[in-house]
Design brief:
Elements (H helix, E strand, L loop, with lengths): L7 E7 L3 H12 L4 E4 L8 H4 L20 H6 L9 H14 L6 E2 L4 E7 L4 E6 L4 E9 L22 E3 L14 E5 L3 H13 L2 E6 L5 E3 L7 H9 L1 H9 L19 H12 L6 H5 L7 H18 L3 H7 L12 E3 L2 H4 L5 E5 L5 E4 L3 E4 L3 E3 L2 E4 L8 H4 L2 E3 L6 H4 L18 E3 L12 H21 L4 E4 L1 H16 L29 H13 L5 E5 L2 E5 L8 H13 L9 H13 L9 E9 L2 E9 L6 E7 L13 H11 L2 E5 L11 H16 L5 E11 L1 H16 L4 E7 L10 H6 L7 H11 L8
Parallel strand pairs: 1-2, 1-6, 2-3, 4-17, 6-18, 7-16, 8-9, 8-16, 9-12, 10-11, 24-25, 24-26, 26-27
Antiparallel strand pairs: 4-5, 5-6, 13-14, 14-15, 19-20, 20-21, 22-23, 23-25
The structure holds flavin-adenine dinucleotide and 3-acetylpyridine adenine dinucleotide.
């Protein structure tokens, strides 16, 4: 039977964009029968639908292209650094023709429902053409940005002139010559379209609700030597992209803004502006979306450029984004966006100052004005990441629909699979890196993982694969942890679902990067589908577990430290370990700026000891915190947790006093807790002089220091001392029992392992004292 019309196949793929095309190629190669169903009348997906003037990619074309056909890599020539939509569509057409892909695709066919039949272990799909198709595996390659969001403006149906959506642009193009045109929306689509529409229209009014950050794309032909250089090493180049952060040849800068001089910051900002790349800011300032100080410096620089370019100061001010950190909404790179507002026939309306009242038959009314118009362009964005998936009625095991399951936000394992929905895969689904990356790289990685998995299951005679609830919960937690480290939740972006009324507010993509994520997906398969249940006949094989138990940043730091191959502390004498820890602390990343840092001495239990005080900016009195550093009661001092203390000072608006205390092996238990109790008493007496308030004092510590903070709190309670408002115990040592489960589970992992804990205890306290 013709591949195009079988009604029972191994795999159904929905969508014939970049992902669907590669899926079909791999499915054929694997000898799996398939149907690819596409609602459009041709291939291309994003590049089929988004034909608005100015549409082009913002990842360089030599990177935003397939890596699976070496011949194609050599024969294809991109005319520009950032190719236009027609050129990208030509490229996809060339691929489809070369590999005869259209013959495996059914066009003008929308999948409307999909239902899992647990007895037959098959999916049943129904399309808008009335066709019914049965398959073992069902793959949604429906795109992250393929469903334009409904325009939520009063009166939208009233306008009698032509209206256009950037995401559904007419194939024959639009001539705006002589027209009074409105563009609503200033995201990536609006920013690309506005300069070109302005070239044609008699009058252009841009309705802006939130200004966006944009930098010049500096587009143009790719220098021939760059092309030659990349073509000569495409395999290595692609491999680098696969293991990178964003799927592009770039790694974020590691230098902290706190160690840069003003001149260096200024130099980097100019380099960023002149970089002509989406990731130029993160290349110069690696913590751009992690650190508010860095972010504000970069944001203010971009605002200063907008003020320089745009002649009218009032318009310039309206174009300056102030309501979200830079990089937390998709940043843009543009050609002539800001200069367009210097043209006499282009006007910007700030909807925050003058909101929409209604769209009328002949134009738009805002609270203060009426605009007569000939055409309206909606550049209002997409129901991103989940829109196309839940647009299909997908019913899994036990009659549960995916729409119901995701009512509070997407919940997946790896952004690829969902419990309750066996043999169901989403390409670049929510909770995978997808839109935080060069999508070509993410798409290829997902397609390879899915096809390799399906082929493997077939070869092993396995009927179904389905993630476990434990694996799902772990992944949801891991994804959220990643997002919470960043400034991303501060923006009302489509990344957060905030652009669609009623959509749950969670971070939809996975933040830790394509290379890290690839490693995780590989690990899942290498561990025989960790986190999945496999069924064959009556046999059920459950390999339950959580693939990533650590926060992404912690995992990455541990990996880097493991790669450094540092000598284990427990192999050293205590003296050498102390010297080594001082050396390591000197190389640790710098902490944020605080108002004041003051060194002094306090009266410890057996004589004077040093402290370092961190005071917030502004006028006190401030709350005070007595802080005790970590280091197993053996290493470290009052300065070794400098970055952490600064950070706590900034975040809490409190004075942090980091106290030194006596360490083992020279001063064994109870020297350290005696000093800690003395330090807290001393702080109670001196808080006022230091600019603080003695009431509401808090004790705090990290690791062994947290143990001391807790012990000091108990002693003050029992022996009398200043009243405490609380204890902040960061990964505290809570007892000396090395039979606890964490010693079993993590006893031989990097850095803090069982042998080191034993070494610390032996230097610190006699066995008889350890249960104290
Ligand atoms: P899509 O290209 O969205 O294809 C999905 C297909 O599924 C569509 O053709 C759709 O019609 C079809 N479909 C959906 N639902 C159904 C259904 N129920 N039944 C049948 N068919 C269905 N990413 C980058 O990495 N770099 C860029 O520079 C870049 N530029 C972009 C520019 C624009 C204007 C937009 C909108 C996105 C851009 N992206 C970019 C993201 C882009 O979406 C991806 O790079 C990539 O093209 C997605 O391919 P896909 O095959 O996953 O999905
Ligand atoms: O959509 P968007 P997009 N009244 O959601 C405004 C990719 N892409 O199509 O911010 C008034 O970013 C909305 O305002 P606000 C890329 O990943 C890439 O532009 O919600 N205004 C915003 O200004 C991108 O991020 C390229 O306050 C309303 C705009 O419409 C993603 O696709 C090019 C409104 C929507 O911006 C989406 O970009 C194009 C209302 N009711 C797209 N509703 C490249 O360059 C919405 N808005 C590669």
């Amino acid at each position: 039977m013709d591949e195009g019309i079988q009604s029972e196949v191994d795999v159904v793929v929905v969508g014939a964009g970049v992902a669907g095309l590669y899926l079909l190629h791999r499915l054929r190669g694997a000898g799996l029968s398939s149907r690819v169903l596409e609602s459009a009348d041709d291939i291309g997906g994003t590049w089929y639908w988004n034909r608005y003037p100015g549409a082009r990619c913002d990842i360089q074309s030599i990177e935003y292209s397939y890596s699976w056909d070496p011949e194609l890599e050599q024969e294809w020539e991109w005319s520009e650094r950032y190719a236009t939509q027609p050129e990208i569509l030509d490229y996809l057409d060339h691929v489809a023709t070369k590999h005869d892909l259209r013959s495996g695709i059914t066009f003008e066919t929308r999948v409307e429902t999909a239902e899992w039949d647990d007895e037959a272990r098959r999916w049943h799909l129904r399309t808008d053409t009335g066709e019914e198709i049965t398959c073992r595996h069902y793959v949604m390659a429906t795109g992250c940005l393929s469903v334009p969001k409904d325009v939520d403006i009063t009166g939208v149906e009233r306008f009698r002139g032509p209206t256009y959506s950037t995401g559904r642009w007419p194939h024959e193009g639009v001539d705006f010559s002589g027209m009074r045109v409105a563009v609503i929306g200033t995201g990536s689509s609006g920013i690309q379209a506005i300069p070109l529409i302005a070239k044609e229209a008699a009058e252009l009014t841009v309705f802006q609700r939130t200004p966006n950050f944009s930098m010049p794309a500096l587009n143009g032909p790719i220098p021939p030597d760059t092309v030659a250089e990349v073509k000569a090493r495409y395999p290595e180049f692609r491999e680098e992209l696969r293991w990178s952060l964003g799927g592009v040849e770039f790694e974020p800068g590691l230098d902290s803004i706190y160690t840069m001089s003003d001149e260096e910051i200024a130099e980097r900002l100019e380099r960023m502006w002149n970089g002509g790349e989406l990731f130029a800011a993160a290349r110069e300032f690696g913590d751009l979306t992690l650190n508010e100080d860095t972010n504000e410096i970069v944001a203010e620089f971009v605002r200063s450029k907008i003020r320089e370019i745009v002649d009218d100061p009032e318009t310039a001010e309206k174009l300056c984004p102030t309501t979200f950190p830079i990089g937390t909404k998709r940043p843009c790179i543009d050609t002539d966006y800001y200069p367009t507002f210097n043209l006499p026939h282009v006007r910007l309306v700030d909807l925050r100052q003058d909101p929409f009242r209604t769209i009328t038959e002949t134009g738009i009314e805002t609270e203060h004005e009426t605009f007569e118009l000939d055409a309206i362009v909606y550049a209002t964005g997409f129901d991103a990441m989940t829109g196309a998936i839940v647009a299909v009625d997908i019913t899994g095991r036990d009659g549960v629909t995916l729409r119901e399951k995701w009512v509070d936000g997407p919940s997946t394992y790896l952004g690829l699979t969902v419990p309750g929905f066996p043999n169901f895969f989403t390409i670049t689904g929510p909770q995978s890196p997808s839109v935080f990356s060069n999508m070509m790289v993410s798409i290829e990685q997902h397609v390879d993982w899915v096809i390799d998995t399906i082929t493997d299951l077939r070869d092993r005679g396995i009927d179904t694969i389905e993630p476990t609830p434990t694996a799902e919960a772990g992944w949801v937690r891991h994804t959220a942890d990643g997002g919470d480290m960043t400034l991303l939740p501060k923006a009302n972006s489509w990344y957060m679902g905030a652009n669609v009324p009623g959509k749950p507010r969670v971070l939809f993509p996975y933040i830790a990067g394509v290379g890290f994520y690839r490693g995780i997906c590989d690990e899942v398969r290498a561990k025989d589908y960790l986190g999945f249940e496999l069924r064959s006949g009556d046999e059920v094989h459950v390999n339950d577990g959580v693939v990533c138990r650590l926060q992404p940043d912690v995992q990455q730091v541990l990996t880097v430290m493991a790669e450094l191959g540092l000598p284990p502390l427990e192999s050293m004498t205590a003296e050498a370990a102390k010297a080594f820890s001082v050396e390591m602390a000197a190389q640790a990343p710098a902490g944020p700026w605080v108002g004041d840092v003051v060194d002094g001495t306090y009266e410890g239990a057996a004589g004077p000891l040093p402290y370092r005080l961190y005071r917030p900016e502004g006028d006190g009195p401030f709350p005070v915190v007595a802080y005790f550093h970590g280091g197993g009661w053996v290493i470290g001092d009052h300065t070794s947790d400098d970055a952490f203390c600064r950070d706590q000072c900034r975040r809490s608006g409190s004075i942090i006093v980091s106290f030194d205390y006596r360490h083992g092996p020279e001063h064994r238990f109870p020297a350290a807790p005696d000093d800690a109790a003395a330090a807290v008493r001393w702080l109670g007496e001196h808080a006022g002089e230091l600019g603080g308030r003695a009431d509401g004092m808090v004790v705090m510590g990290w690791s062994a220091g947290a143990n001391l903070a807790a012990v000091a709190a108990r002693r003050l309670r029992d022996e009398g001392g200043p009243a405490l408002a609380g204890q902040v115990l960061v990964t505290p040592v809570t007892d000396s029992d090395l039979s606890r489960p964490s010693y079993e589970e993590a006893g031989d992992e990097h850095i803090l392992h069982r042998a080191l804990m034993e070494w610390f205890w032996d230097h610190y306290a006699d066995p008889a004292d350890r249960g104290h």
